[in-house]
Amino acid sequence: MKKKTIDKSQDWYRLDNAAKIYPAMINKRNSCVFRFAINLKEEVDPHVLQKALLDMRARFPAMFVRIRHGVFWYYLEENKKTPRVRPEDSRINKTIDLYSNNYFRFTVFYYQNRISLEVFHSLTDGTGAVAFLKSLAYRYLERKGYKLNDEGKVLTFHQEPSLDELEDSFLKYTTKDPHKRYVVPKPFNIKDPRFPSGQGRGVINGRLDASKLHGIAKKHQSTVTEFLSALLTQTVYEVYGERMIKNDRVNICLPINLRRIFPSSSLRNFTLFFHSTVKDEGRGDFEEILRQVKNSFSQGLTKESIIENINVNMQAERNMAMRLTPLFIKKPAMTIAGMMYGGILNTLTMSNIGIIELPASMAEHVQDFEFNLSNDINCAYGIGVITFNNIMTISMIRETRDTVFSMQFFRNLVKLGLKVEVESNYWEEVA
Q: Would the pTM of this model clear 0.90, i.e. be above it?
Protein backbone atom coordinates (compact mmCIF):
# COMPACT_ATOMS: atom_id res chain seq x y z
CA MET A 1 0.00 0.00 0.00
CA LYS A 2 1.34 3.41 -0.97
CA LYS A 3 2.05 5.66 2.01
CA LYS A 4 0.32 9.02 2.14
CA THR A 5 2.81 11.89 2.06
CA ILE A 6 2.40 15.13 3.95
CA ASP A 7 1.02 18.38 2.59
CA LYS A 8 4.17 20.43 1.99
CA SER A 9 2.23 23.65 2.50
CA GLN A 10 1.49 22.68 6.11
CA ASP A 11 3.53 24.92 8.40
CA TRP A 12 2.23 24.00 11.86
CA TYR A 13 1.51 20.84 13.89
CA ARG A 14 -0.33 20.01 17.07
CA LEU A 15 1.76 18.70 19.95
CA ASP A 16 1.16 15.01 20.57
CA ASN A 17 -0.45 14.01 23.85
CA ALA A 18 2.82 13.23 25.65
CA ALA A 19 4.49 16.41 24.40
CA LYS A 20 2.03 18.86 25.91
CA ILE A 21 3.36 18.83 29.47
CA TYR A 22 7.08 19.37 28.76
CA PRO A 23 7.00 23.13 27.97
CA ALA A 24 5.43 23.69 31.40
CA MET A 25 8.04 21.59 33.21
CA ILE A 26 11.23 23.38 32.11
CA ASN A 27 13.28 24.94 34.90
CA LYS A 28 16.95 25.34 35.82
CA ARG A 29 17.09 21.78 37.11
CA ASN A 30 14.90 20.09 34.51
CA SER A 31 15.73 20.78 30.87
CA CYS A 32 13.51 17.98 29.48
CA VAL A 33 16.38 17.40 27.03
CA PHE A 34 17.86 13.99 26.22
CA ARG A 35 20.86 13.02 24.09
CA PHE A 36 22.00 10.42 21.60
CA ALA A 37 25.50 10.24 20.13
CA ILE A 38 27.14 8.20 17.39
CA ASN A 39 30.89 7.64 17.54
CA LEU A 40 32.41 7.26 14.09
CA LYS A 41 35.78 5.73 13.20
CA GLU A 42 37.10 9.04 11.87
CA GLU A 43 37.12 12.68 12.95
CA VAL A 44 33.98 14.66 12.14
CA ASP A 45 34.20 17.45 9.56
CA PRO A 46 31.84 20.18 10.88
CA HIS A 47 31.39 21.80 7.46
CA VAL A 48 30.17 18.55 5.93
CA LEU A 49 28.02 17.89 9.00
CA GLN A 50 26.37 21.31 8.60
CA LYS A 51 25.43 20.52 5.00
CA ALA A 52 24.08 17.12 6.01
CA LEU A 53 21.95 18.74 8.73
CA LEU A 54 20.37 21.15 6.26
CA ASP A 55 19.56 18.18 4.02
CA MET A 56 17.38 16.80 6.84
CA ARG A 57 14.84 19.66 6.80
CA ALA A 58 12.48 18.26 4.17
CA ARG A 59 12.74 14.69 5.50
CA PHE A 60 11.95 15.55 9.15
CA PRO A 61 9.58 18.55 9.03
CA ALA A 62 8.36 18.10 12.62
CA MET A 63 11.92 18.56 13.92
CA PHE A 64 12.59 21.86 12.16
CA VAL A 65 10.01 23.77 14.18
CA ARG A 66 9.63 26.19 17.04
CA ILE A 67 7.13 25.94 19.88
CA ARG A 68 4.48 28.65 19.93
CA HIS A 69 1.92 29.65 22.55
CA GLY A 70 -1.63 29.25 21.31
CA VAL A 71 -4.74 30.46 23.11
CA PHE A 72 -5.47 27.01 24.51
CA TRP A 73 -2.39 24.83 23.82
CA TYR A 74 1.19 25.05 22.67
CA TYR A 75 1.74 24.13 19.03
CA LEU A 76 4.65 23.54 16.62
CA GLU A 77 5.31 26.00 13.81
CA GLU A 78 7.78 25.65 10.96
CA ASN A 79 11.05 27.41 11.81
CA LYS A 80 12.48 28.98 8.68
CA LYS A 81 15.74 29.94 10.39
CA THR A 82 18.93 27.92 9.91
CA PRO A 83 20.09 25.41 12.55
CA ARG A 84 23.84 25.39 13.18
CA VAL A 85 26.04 22.50 14.26
CA ARG A 86 28.16 23.35 17.29
CA PRO A 87 31.28 22.14 19.07
CA GLU A 88 30.20 19.86 21.89
CA ASP A 89 29.46 21.59 25.20
CA SER A 90 30.99 20.09 28.35
CA ARG A 91 27.58 20.41 30.06
CA ILE A 92 25.29 17.90 28.40
CA ASN A 93 21.49 18.02 28.31
CA LYS A 94 21.32 21.58 29.58
CA THR A 95 18.29 23.76 28.92
CA ILE A 96 18.36 24.91 25.30
CA ASP A 97 19.13 28.61 24.87
CA LEU A 98 16.45 29.38 22.31
CA TYR A 99 17.86 32.72 21.13
CA SER A 100 21.35 31.42 20.38
CA ASN A 101 19.85 28.22 18.93
CA ASN A 102 17.64 30.15 16.46
CA TYR A 103 14.59 28.89 18.40
CA PHE A 104 15.13 25.27 17.40
CA ARG A 105 14.40 22.69 20.09
CA PHE A 106 17.25 20.40 19.09
CA THR A 107 21.00 20.87 18.69
CA VAL A 108 23.59 18.87 16.77
CA PHE A 109 27.08 18.85 18.30
CA TYR A 110 30.43 17.46 17.19
CA TYR A 111 33.58 16.50 19.08
CA GLN A 112 36.49 14.59 17.55
CA ASN A 113 34.81 11.49 16.07
CA ARG A 114 31.42 12.03 17.75
CA ILE A 115 28.15 13.46 16.42
CA SER A 116 25.58 14.06 19.16
CA LEU A 117 21.96 15.14 19.11
CA GLU A 118 20.28 16.83 22.06
CA VAL A 119 16.53 17.20 21.72
CA PHE A 120 13.67 18.65 23.75
CA HIS A 121 11.14 15.95 24.58
CA SER A 122 8.16 17.77 23.05
CA LEU A 123 9.56 17.08 19.58
CA THR A 124 10.01 13.33 19.80
CA ASP A 125 10.98 10.35 21.93
CA GLY A 126 13.97 8.03 21.77
CA THR A 127 12.76 6.18 18.67
CA GLY A 128 12.27 9.38 16.69
CA ALA A 129 15.58 10.84 17.86
CA VAL A 130 17.50 7.69 16.87
CA ALA A 131 15.85 7.74 13.43
CA PHE A 132 16.91 11.37 12.96
CA LEU A 133 20.50 10.78 14.14
CA LYS A 134 20.90 7.67 11.95
CA SER A 135 19.62 9.59 8.94
CA LEU A 136 21.92 12.54 9.68
CA ALA A 137 25.00 10.32 10.08
CA TYR A 138 24.09 8.39 6.92
CA ARG A 139 23.82 11.61 4.91
CA TYR A 140 27.07 12.89 6.45
CA LEU A 141 28.91 9.77 5.28
CA GLU A 142 27.33 10.11 1.84
CA ARG A 143 28.56 13.69 1.60
CA LYS A 144 32.01 12.46 2.63
CA GLY A 145 31.97 10.38 -0.55
CA TYR A 146 31.20 6.92 0.81
CA LYS A 147 28.96 4.64 -1.27
CA LEU A 148 26.15 3.44 0.98
CA ASN A 149 23.10 1.20 0.68
CA ASP A 150 20.37 1.94 3.23
CA GLU A 151 18.93 -1.65 3.14
CA GLY A 152 15.67 -0.18 4.43
CA LYS A 153 17.28 0.43 7.85
CA VAL A 154 17.70 4.21 7.58
CA LEU A 155 15.28 6.98 6.61
CA THR A 156 17.18 8.72 3.82
CA PHE A 157 16.94 12.42 3.00
CA HIS A 158 15.57 11.93 -0.52
CA GLN A 159 12.51 10.03 0.75
CA GLU A 160 9.22 11.86 1.20
CA PRO A 161 8.02 11.97 4.82
CA SER A 162 4.74 10.12 5.32
CA LEU A 163 1.66 11.17 7.25
CA ASP A 164 2.12 8.09 9.45
CA GLU A 165 5.42 9.53 10.72
CA LEU A 166 3.63 12.66 11.97
CA GLU A 167 0.76 10.77 13.58
CA ASP A 168 -0.21 11.22 17.22
CA SER A 169 -0.54 7.51 17.92
CA PHE A 170 -2.03 8.18 21.36
CA LEU A 171 -5.15 9.46 19.58
CA LYS A 172 -5.24 6.37 17.39
CA TYR A 173 -5.16 3.85 20.23
CA THR A 174 -7.15 5.60 22.95
CA THR A 175 -10.59 4.19 23.75
CA LYS A 176 -13.62 5.40 25.68
CA ASP A 177 -13.50 2.47 28.08
CA PRO A 178 -13.66 3.21 31.83
CA HIS A 179 -10.27 3.98 33.31
CA LYS A 180 -8.58 4.73 36.59
CA ARG A 181 -5.33 6.56 37.26
CA TYR A 182 -2.20 4.46 37.57
CA VAL A 183 -1.17 4.95 41.22
CA VAL A 184 2.58 5.03 41.89
CA PRO A 185 3.53 4.61 45.56
CA LYS A 186 5.97 7.23 46.83
CA PRO A 187 9.46 5.73 46.85
CA PHE A 188 12.80 6.30 48.48
CA ASN A 189 14.44 9.37 46.89
CA ILE A 190 18.21 9.78 46.74
CA LYS A 191 19.16 12.98 48.60
CA ASP A 192 22.91 13.19 47.99
CA PRO A 193 24.38 16.73 47.61
CA ARG A 194 23.71 18.12 44.12
CA PHE A 195 25.82 20.10 41.71
CA PRO A 196 24.99 23.84 41.72
CA SER A 197 21.93 24.65 39.62
CA GLY A 198 22.78 24.95 35.94
CA GLN A 199 26.42 23.91 36.45
CA GLY A 200 26.28 20.60 34.62
CA ARG A 201 25.86 16.92 35.39
CA GLY A 202 28.16 14.03 36.09
CA VAL A 203 28.33 11.24 33.52
CA ILE A 204 29.89 7.78 33.84
CA ASN A 205 29.66 5.37 30.91
CA GLY A 206 30.22 1.64 31.07
CA ARG A 207 30.70 -0.50 27.95
CA LEU A 208 30.33 -4.27 28.00
CA ASP A 209 29.62 -7.37 25.92
CA ALA A 210 25.87 -7.33 25.25
CA SER A 211 25.56 -11.03 24.43
CA LYS A 212 27.21 -12.05 27.72
CA LEU A 213 24.79 -9.90 29.73
CA HIS A 214 21.90 -11.34 27.73
CA GLY A 215 23.10 -14.83 28.62
CA ILE A 216 23.23 -13.97 32.34
CA ALA A 217 19.72 -12.49 32.22
CA LYS A 218 18.44 -15.57 30.40
CA LYS A 219 19.85 -17.83 33.13
CA HIS A 220 17.71 -15.85 35.57
CA GLN A 221 14.68 -16.28 33.25
CA SER A 222 14.43 -12.54 32.72
CA THR A 223 14.86 -9.97 30.00
CA VAL A 224 17.92 -7.70 29.99
CA THR A 225 15.75 -4.74 31.03
CA GLU A 226 14.25 -6.68 33.94
CA PHE A 227 17.69 -7.88 35.02
CA LEU A 228 19.24 -4.40 34.91
CA SER A 229 16.26 -2.98 36.82
CA ALA A 230 16.79 -5.59 39.53
CA LEU A 231 20.55 -4.97 39.67
CA LEU A 232 20.00 -1.22 39.97
CA THR A 233 17.50 -1.83 42.76
CA GLN A 234 19.98 -4.07 44.58
CA THR A 235 22.61 -1.33 44.24
CA VAL A 236 20.23 1.20 45.79
CA TYR A 237 19.87 -1.08 48.83
CA GLU A 238 23.64 -1.62 49.05
CA VAL A 239 24.54 2.08 48.87
CA TYR A 240 21.58 3.74 50.60
CA GLY A 241 20.12 0.95 52.74
CA GLU A 242 21.16 2.56 56.03
CA ARG A 243 19.24 5.74 55.12
CA MET A 244 16.07 3.89 54.17
CA ILE A 245 13.27 3.35 56.64
CA LYS A 246 11.02 0.32 56.89
CA ASN A 247 8.59 -0.05 53.97
CA ASP A 248 10.61 2.29 51.72
CA ARG A 249 10.12 1.23 48.11
CA VAL A 250 12.53 1.48 45.21
CA ASN A 251 10.75 2.75 42.09
CA ILE A 252 12.54 2.60 38.76
CA CYS A 253 10.80 4.63 36.07
CA LEU A 254 11.03 2.98 32.65
CA PRO A 255 9.85 4.64 29.42
CA ILE A 256 8.09 1.97 27.33
CA ASN A 257 8.23 2.19 23.54
CA LEU A 258 4.59 1.58 22.62
CA ARG A 259 5.50 0.83 18.99
CA ARG A 260 6.55 -2.62 20.21
CA ILE A 261 2.95 -3.22 21.33
CA PHE A 262 0.84 -1.17 18.91
CA PRO A 263 1.67 -0.84 15.19
CA SER A 264 2.93 2.71 14.60
CA SER A 265 5.40 4.45 12.30
CA SER A 266 5.17 7.72 14.23
CA LEU A 267 8.39 9.68 14.74
CA ARG A 268 6.74 11.74 17.46
CA ASN A 269 6.26 10.76 21.09
CA PHE A 270 4.70 7.34 21.54
CA THR A 271 6.11 6.34 24.91
CA LEU A 272 4.45 5.59 28.22
CA PHE A 273 6.15 5.68 31.62
CA PHE A 274 5.96 2.54 33.72
CA HIS A 275 7.35 1.83 37.21
CA SER A 276 9.12 -1.24 38.51
CA THR A 277 8.45 -1.26 42.25
CA VAL A 278 10.30 -3.33 44.86
CA LYS A 279 9.07 -3.42 48.45
CA ASP A 280 11.24 -3.58 51.53
CA GLU A 281 11.24 -7.38 51.84
CA GLY A 282 13.48 -7.55 48.77
CA ARG A 283 16.34 -5.85 50.57
CA GLY A 284 19.54 -7.89 50.38
CA ASP A 285 18.05 -10.74 48.33
CA PHE A 286 18.64 -10.38 44.59
CA GLU A 287 16.34 -13.24 43.61
CA GLU A 288 13.49 -11.67 45.60
CA ILE A 289 14.22 -8.29 44.02
CA LEU A 290 14.16 -9.84 40.55
CA ARG A 291 10.92 -11.68 41.34
CA GLN A 292 9.22 -8.41 42.32
CA VAL A 293 10.61 -6.63 39.26
CA LYS A 294 9.32 -9.36 36.92
CA ASN A 295 5.96 -9.20 38.68
CA SER A 296 5.80 -5.43 38.08
CA PHE A 297 6.51 -5.98 34.39
CA SER A 298 3.97 -8.78 33.96
CA GLN A 299 1.19 -6.82 35.68
CA GLY A 300 1.96 -3.34 34.37
CA LEU A 301 2.73 -4.11 30.73
CA THR A 302 -0.38 -5.95 29.65
CA LYS A 303 -2.12 -4.44 26.64
CA GLU A 304 -5.20 -3.74 28.76
CA SER A 305 -3.30 -1.81 31.45
CA ILE A 306 -1.40 0.18 28.82
CA ILE A 307 -4.62 1.19 27.03
CA GLU A 308 -6.06 2.19 30.39
CA ASN A 309 -3.05 4.44 31.07
CA ILE A 310 -3.29 5.94 27.58
CA ASN A 311 -6.95 6.73 28.33
CA VAL A 312 -5.98 8.41 31.60
CA ASN A 313 -3.39 10.57 29.83
CA MET A 314 -5.93 11.50 27.15
CA GLN A 315 -8.56 12.47 29.71
CA ALA A 316 -7.48 16.12 30.00
CA GLU A 317 -7.33 16.49 26.24
CA ARG A 318 -10.89 15.19 25.90
CA ASN A 319 -12.29 17.24 28.77
CA MET A 320 -14.20 20.15 27.24
CA ALA A 321 -13.64 22.44 30.22
CA MET A 322 -9.89 21.80 30.07
CA ARG A 323 -9.81 22.26 26.31
CA LEU A 324 -11.49 25.65 26.61
CA THR A 325 -9.29 26.81 29.50
CA PRO A 326 -6.73 29.41 28.31
CA LEU A 327 -3.11 28.30 28.23
CA PHE A 328 -1.99 30.89 30.80
CA ILE A 329 -4.24 29.12 33.32
CA LYS A 330 -3.38 25.60 32.12
CA LYS A 331 0.38 26.15 32.34
CA PRO A 332 0.69 26.42 36.16
CA ALA A 333 -1.69 23.46 36.51
CA MET A 334 0.50 21.38 34.19
CA THR A 335 3.60 22.47 36.12
CA ILE A 336 2.04 21.25 39.37
CA ALA A 337 0.95 17.99 37.70
CA GLY A 338 4.50 17.48 36.43
CA MET A 339 5.83 17.92 39.96
CA MET A 340 3.23 15.54 41.43
CA TYR A 341 3.68 12.81 38.83
CA GLY A 342 7.28 13.45 37.82
CA GLY A 343 10.69 12.78 39.33
CA ILE A 344 9.52 12.70 42.93
CA LEU A 345 7.85 9.34 42.22
CA ASN A 346 11.11 7.86 40.95
CA THR A 347 14.12 6.54 42.83
CA LEU A 348 15.83 6.64 39.46
CA THR A 349 14.98 6.37 35.75
CA MET A 350 16.27 3.82 33.26
CA SER A 351 15.59 3.53 29.54
CA ASN A 352 16.85 0.66 27.38
CA ILE A 353 16.57 1.82 23.78
CA GLY A 354 17.59 -1.64 22.55
CA ILE A 355 19.76 -2.72 19.63
CA ILE A 356 20.57 -0.17 16.92
CA GLU A 357 20.52 -1.66 13.44
CA LEU A 358 22.50 -0.06 10.61
CA PRO A 359 23.09 -1.11 7.01
CA ALA A 360 26.41 -2.94 6.62
CA SER A 361 27.91 -0.23 4.40
CA MET A 362 27.26 2.35 7.16
CA ALA A 363 28.05 0.13 10.15
CA GLU A 364 31.68 -0.30 9.06
CA HIS A 365 32.20 3.44 9.74
CA VAL A 366 30.60 3.38 13.22
CA GLN A 367 32.24 2.55 16.54
CA ASP A 368 29.32 2.72 18.99
CA PHE A 369 26.40 4.79 20.30
CA GLU A 370 25.65 6.67 23.53
CA PHE A 371 22.31 7.55 25.15
CA ASN A 372 21.91 10.08 27.98
CA LEU A 373 18.60 10.68 29.71
CA SER A 374 17.38 13.89 31.21
CA ASN A 375 16.96 14.06 35.00
CA ASP A 376 15.89 16.60 37.59
CA ILE A 377 16.35 17.66 41.21
CA ASN A 378 13.96 14.96 42.49
CA CYS A 379 15.33 12.05 40.45
CA ALA A 380 19.09 12.01 40.95
CA TYR A 381 20.03 9.37 38.37
CA GLY A 382 19.08 8.67 34.76
CA ILE A 383 20.44 5.51 33.16
CA GLY A 384 20.45 5.21 29.37
CA VAL A 385 21.17 1.83 27.76
CA ILE A 386 21.92 1.36 24.06
CA THR A 387 23.50 -1.48 22.07
CA PHE A 388 25.31 -1.56 18.74
CA ASN A 389 27.53 -4.27 17.25
CA ASN A 390 27.31 -6.25 20.52
CA ILE A 391 28.64 -3.27 22.51
CA MET A 392 26.20 -2.24 25.22
CA THR A 393 26.79 1.27 26.55
CA ILE A 394 25.23 2.04 29.93
CA SER A 395 25.38 5.77 30.60
CA MET A 396 24.65 7.01 34.11
CA ILE A 397 23.91 10.73 34.25
CA ARG A 398 23.51 12.21 37.71
CA GLU A 399 22.68 15.40 39.58
CA THR A 400 24.83 14.33 42.53
CA ARG A 401 28.52 14.92 43.24
CA ASP A 402 28.96 11.46 44.74
CA THR A 403 29.99 8.68 42.33
CA VAL A 404 29.57 5.80 44.81
CA PHE A 405 26.27 4.55 43.41
CA SER A 406 27.45 4.53 39.78
CA MET A 407 30.70 2.75 40.59
CA GLN A 408 28.99 0.19 42.84
CA PHE A 409 26.58 -0.67 40.02
CA PHE A 410 29.44 -1.27 37.59
CA ARG A 411 31.26 -3.34 40.23
CA ASN A 412 28.14 -5.49 40.52
CA LEU A 413 28.29 -6.10 36.77
CA VAL A 414 31.96 -7.09 37.08
CA LYS A 415 31.07 -9.53 39.89
CA LEU A 416 28.83 -11.30 37.39
CA GLY A 417 31.89 -12.03 35.26
CA LEU A 418 31.47 -9.14 32.83
CA LYS A 419 34.34 -6.97 31.67
CA VAL A 420 33.24 -3.33 31.91
CA GLU A 421 35.16 -0.45 30.34
CA VAL A 422 34.36 2.70 32.34
CA GLU A 423 34.82 6.35 31.36
CA SER A 424 33.78 9.55 33.15
CA ASN A 425 33.54 13.29 32.57
CA TYR A 426 34.86 13.71 36.18
CA TRP A 427 32.35 16.51 36.74
CA GLU A 428 32.68 16.11 40.51
CA GLU A 429 36.20 17.56 40.12
CA VAL A 430 35.10 20.42 37.87
CA ALA A 431 31.87 21.91 39.22
A: yes
